[in-house]
Amino acid sequence: LSYEHGMVKLHDLAEYRRVHGEGHILTTVGRIIFNERVERALEEVLEDKYDPGTSYSFVNEPLKKRNTNAVIQELVERHGPHATAQVLDAFKDLGFHFASRAGITISKNDVVIPPKKGEILERYEGEVGEIIGQYNDGLISQEERHEAVVEKWNAATDEVGHAMEENLNELNPIFMMANSGARGSFKQIRQLAGMRGLMANPKGEIIERPIKANFMEGLTVLEYFISTHGARKGLADTALRTADSGYLTRRLVDVAQDVIVREEDCGTKETIEMPLLGVDGRPNDNLLGRFSGAEIKVKNAKALGKDALITQAVADELRESLGEKQDEATVTVRSVLKCEAETGICQHCYGIAPATGKLVAIGDAVGIIAAQSIGEPGTQLTLRTFHTGGVAGLDITQGLPRVVELFEARKPKGLAKLAEVDGTANIERTEKALKVTVTDDAGEEHAYSFPVRTRLFVEEGEKISAGHQLNEGSIYPHELLDIRGRTDTEVYLVQEVQKVYKSQGVDIKDKHLEIIVRQMMKKVRVDQKGDSPLLPGAFVDRHDMAKINADLKKKKKEQAEFAEIILGITKASLATDSFLSAASFQETTKVLTDAALEGKTDRLLGLKENVIIGKLIPAATGLKHYRRLEIEPKEAIRRNTPDEIGLLDEGDLAAELGLTEDGELEGFGFGTDTGGGNGDAAFGDELADLPATDDKAE
User: Fold this and answer.
1) Per-residue pLDDT, 431
2) Which residues contact 345 (CB under 8 A, 6 or more apart)?
3) How far apart are the first and last CA of the chain?
4) Residue 477 has what pLDDT?
5) Considering only 62-66, 294-298, 472-476, 655-659, which range has the smallest mean pLDDT?
């Protein structure tokens, strides 16, 4: 009432006591209006089930994009999608109402340049001058100078950006837009009010001369010329990105199209370890909705048995009971990476479906969902490959090309070396190179050399294990597989793809990536055939290999020896057991010729091969699992009389269809074929089967 009479404004502080709550909440008028409207909407939809104390928690924080998502997530978890949809309507109405009452405009005066900018730039100019002095004196090389100068100017750009953010008023329209998550980001505002910073040339090398000005101050002719490089590359990237992202999606769909949930529990004993907390110290979202792989003991609470669902409540209890130890704590969970289902995967290895919040249903085409979840945000990823000016030969691939590099299991640019044995590291520095020697327990030395400016990930005298990364860069997945084995390689691939998406603010669930990685590592290579009918060098499905060896063991014959391999998604798609699926993907002639020569059989287990031959797809209700079901009505269905359902009698229907008395359609002059193949058959024959209507009812 006070607000409606103009006595208080939306931003004014107010003490508020909820109708059924205890004590007062210090909040604002706007938040009271918002919360009351949401509670009213919930009360309307939940009716008798609505409990003022527990159904809704008062939101007493600015509703930025992230916070709004959290509120909606909580509503879905507590009350389900139907009630949430009604509340979202209230959100929308409230938004439209206040957007029409007041909006924000942008004036050039809202772009406020930080007063400290000149002082910051002066300090960094001095530091850059010192670096150039060292180069002129011959103390450092050209590459070292370039890297050091680029590092300094990047730091200067960040510092000016932070000074600008701190200097902006919270009610500044531009600040509000970026801070709320409605439009734009602080990176863009930095270019308006901070400094543009460093640009890359068309080759992808960073230009040393920074653009110190911002758009508010205006660029000099040289600065404008330098900035055209970046602008042109941006436009070219956008055009290329769409095609590249589409092709990535196609490959992902192809490799995962036969991953369908086919059984309840495969009974695997293999598990993976997941950290309790994410990188940012917050609860690990990827842990929720999975089944535990071992018994989890929790203080002050009942232990969580093996193969039990990990919910938010369980994760909270775990964190509480671990206290300070939670930072390094890991939880053993089931994962699709280790699923042993013969075809597709099982419900327990997948867990909760992110779309519904319920256990994934048998028949769900989770492979296609995973491919679309990864491919669709691909257009948001940049194509940029930044070359740091040839420093230590390190070209860091970022964005979409990095995702493709990982999924195709290619040798990365800027390769990192791995220690091949457990041992103690010893570092030697010379003018031309760095040498790292790892001495194993037997006293044998393994030497690795690097360029002088390489950033090492190992200390002098440090005890390291096999597979330890020695220098900055990207790991070659095949090398990691040889040294550390399958599980570490699978986890590395998932984490690396996640890094790229997270850097662009895209949130993808780990289980989608795990499905693709599982398909990449589905095959093994036969090394020694033993007494099996396999050929050395052949790629065999992991489960088939296990069966063949189990059979040989039973017969006390020599088992086949095999090696773990990674296939890129293109190779994995072509190496699938279905030649129809492979032929419809790429290299059609080769695939069909090979299939004919080998006399292959396609078991039609995936979606594509069934679509090709026109069969029902083996997903959802197309699965035999559902086709065997018979629906039994709870009560007998009452047959309605024609009058009750508004059926026309024979004469009315004939008139409605334009039939003449002799059964011909008016205006056509020939008999009507009713499906029996006889053109003289009239609709009257069909109508005779209908029950006659009661004339009195008319």
Assistant:
1) 78
2) 259, 260, 261, 262, 266, 336, 339, 366, 515, 518
3) 60
4) 93
5) 655-659
Task: Tell me which residue of 219, 214, 165, 179 sits closest to 193, measured CA to CA.
Answer: 214
Closest to 248 measured CA to CA, from 260, 259, 237, 240: 240
Band (pLDDT 50/70/90 cuts) for residue 157 is: very high
Which structure tokens are listed for 148?
A: 């050091």
By C-alpha distance, which of 358, 360, 356, 357 is closest to 348?
A: 360
Give the closest residue to 544 by CA, choosing from 556, 528, 533, 557: 533
Q: Band of the pLDDT at 691, cuts 50, 70, 90?
A: very low
CB within 8 A of 396, min separation 6: which ones?
Answer: 385, 386, 388, 413, 414, 473, 474
HSE (CB half, 13 Å, CA atoms) of 465? 3
Distance CA 444, CA 421 (A): 10
**pLDDT interval class at 667 (50, 70, 90):** very low
Nearest to 139 by CA among 542, 544, 452, 377: 452
Dist. CA 312–CA 335, nearest whole Å: 18
Let me know: does 413 contact 287? Beta carbons within 8 Å.
no
134-148, 242-256, 482-496, 617-631: lowest mean pLDDT where?
617-631
Contacts of 524 (CB under 8 A, 6+ apart): 539, 540, 541, 542, 545, 562, 563, 564, 565
Query: 635: which 2 tokens?
Result: 């009560």
The DSSP bridge partners found for residue 530 are: none
- Cα separation, 254 vs 576, whole angstroms: 10
Single-letter code of the amino acid located at 97: H
Mean pLDDT, range 179-186, rounded to an integer = 82
Task: Evaluate if residue 690 carries a pLDDT over 70.
Answer: no
Give the H or E element holding residue 25.
strand 25-28
Residues 6+ apart with CB under 8 A from 685: 674
Q: Starting at the earlier edge strand, list the strands of the sheet with 423-429.
A: 445-451, 433-439, 423-429, 463-464
Mean pLDDT for the chain overall: 81
Task: Classify domain 108-219 at the CATH superfamily level.
Answer: RNA polymerase Rpb1 funnel domain (1.10.132.30)
Residue 329, token pair as written in the block: 């704590």
Is residue 260 a contact partner of residue 367, using CB atoms and an 8 Å limit?
yes
- Give the H/E segment covering residue 464: strand 463-464
* Interacting residues of 542 by C-beta distance below 8 A, sequence separation 6+: 521, 522, 523, 524
Query: In the structure encoding, which two tokens stand for residue 452, read together?
Result: 């002088």
pLDDT in tens, 3-29: 665 677 777 777 777 666 666 778 888
Tokens encoding 633: 């009505």
Give dist(CA 6, CA 11) in Å, integer: 12
Among residues 584, 630, 587, 589, which one has the least CA distance to residue 606? 584
Q: CA 60, CA 612: separation in Å to the nearest integer?
A: 55
SS3 150: helix
Could you give the CA distance from residue 196 to residue 110 in angstroms, rounded to a whole number? 18
CATH topology of domain 520-627: DNA polymerase; domain 1 (1.10.150)
- pLDDT single digits (tens) 223-262: 999 888 878 877 887 777 778 888 999 999 999 999 999 9
Sketch the domain layout of the chain as residue ranges: 13-101, 108-219, 520-627, 642-697
Q: Determine how β-strand 463-464 pairs with β-strand 423-429.
A: antiparallel
Q: What is the pLDDT of residues 22-70, one digit of tens each?
A: 667 788 888 888 888 888 888 888 777 777 666 777 778 888 888 888 8
Which pair of structure tokens corresponds to residue 199?
């640009």
